[in-house]
């Protein structure tokens, strides 16, 4: 039996990445038709939990919310949970400008995902660390993908196909943990 989950996102690249993972758990995703809810906060886990609960009340069906941030060590974790806003305002060039004369380019992408269904709430988190390259490379993915290379790779996320990125991705780790718990929950209910 294939499970259907509503994914609350307007980002089609994110939808593609998560859908690929969902299929491996025999779960199909559909885009939610819920009002855009932009919960802000200092903590990704709290942001997705609040957003998923609100989206569940609108949709009245199992709903998944995922949020991620780029945490740059030399910038004390900036932009972190504000990554989307920073991307929209100063963009990749602005972040590279902030790191212009910085040698330590370590960074981690972190993700939190929350799924709310009639049986409860499931939360998963994921992280991948690597470094910020000196100039953007690649045309795939979205956000800061063109400037982030995970440890163990020479390519940026934007130079990888979705299936390759999902082998490293913070988002893939977070939603996989959610889907594993969801499948188990559905077996026991």
What does this entry look like structurally?
This protein is of the alpha/beta class and 189 residues long. It is 37% helix and 26% strand. It has a single domain (3-188), classed as Maf protein. The protein has six helices and seven strands; from the N terminus they run βαβαββααβββαα. Strand 3 and strand 4 (79-80) form a beta hairpin. The longest helix has 19 residues, at 170-188. The radius of gyration is 17 Å and the shape is globular.
In short:
The protein has six helices and seven strands. By secondary structure, it is of the alpha/beta class.
CATH topology: Maf protein
Strand residues, percent? 25-35%
Secondary structural class: alpha/beta
The whole-angstrom Rg is 17 Å
Count of alpha and pi helical runs: 6
What is the CATH domain class?
Alpha Beta
Number of domains: 1
């Amino acid at each position: 039996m294939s499970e259907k989950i509503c994914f609350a996102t307007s980002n089609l690249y994110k939808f593609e990445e998560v859908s690929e993972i969902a299929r491996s758990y025999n779960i199909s995703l559909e885009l939610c038709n819920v009002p855009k809810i932009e919960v802000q906060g200092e903590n990704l886990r709290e942001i997705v939990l609040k957003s998923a609960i609100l989206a569940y009340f609108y949709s009245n069906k199992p709903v998944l919310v995922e949020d991620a941030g780029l945490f740059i060590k030399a910038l004390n974790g900036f932009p972190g949970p504000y990554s989307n806003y920073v991307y929209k305002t100063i963009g990749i060039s602005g972040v590279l400008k902030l790191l212009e004369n910085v040698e330590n380019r370590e960074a981690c992408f972190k993700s939190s995902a929350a799924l709310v269904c009639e049986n409860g709430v499931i939360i998963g988190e994921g992280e991948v660390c690597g470094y910020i390259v000196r100039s953007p490379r690649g045309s795939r993915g979205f956000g800061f993908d063109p400037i982030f290379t995970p440890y163990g790779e020479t390519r940026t996320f934007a130079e990888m196909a979705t299936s390759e990125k999902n082998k490293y991705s913070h988002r893939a780790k977070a939603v996989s943990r959610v889907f594993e718990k969801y499948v188990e929950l559905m077996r026991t209910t």
